[in-house]
Write a structure and sequence with these properties.
Shape: globular
Largest sheet: 5 strands, mixed
CATH superfamily: Beta-grasp domain
Structural class: mainly beta
Radius of gyration: 11 Å
Number of strands: 5
CATH architecture: Roll
Length: about 70
């Protein structure tokens, strides 16, 4: 299945939910905002939202520091 992540097409094996995708990308869910097809997806929906071929994701990662 093809998913566009931050403007780049990536290939993944279906079925895949958002939690699994973040794990494959080695991103911590509590530090990432997920926009799926132009809608913000809350963290409590990550494990129940199955990704589909052609979905568009924007992943915005928070970085701490000082």
């Amino acid at each position: 299945m093809q998913i566009n992540i931050n403007g780049q097409n990536r290939t993944f094996t279906a079925p895949l939910n958002v939690t699994e995708l973040l794990g494959q990308l080695q991103l911590a869910a509590e530090r990432v905002v997920v926009e799926l097809n132009r809608e913000i997806l809350t963290t409590d929906h990550h494990s129940t939202t199955l990704l589909q071929d052609g979905d568009q994701l924007e992943l915005i990662q928070f970085v701490g520091g000082g």
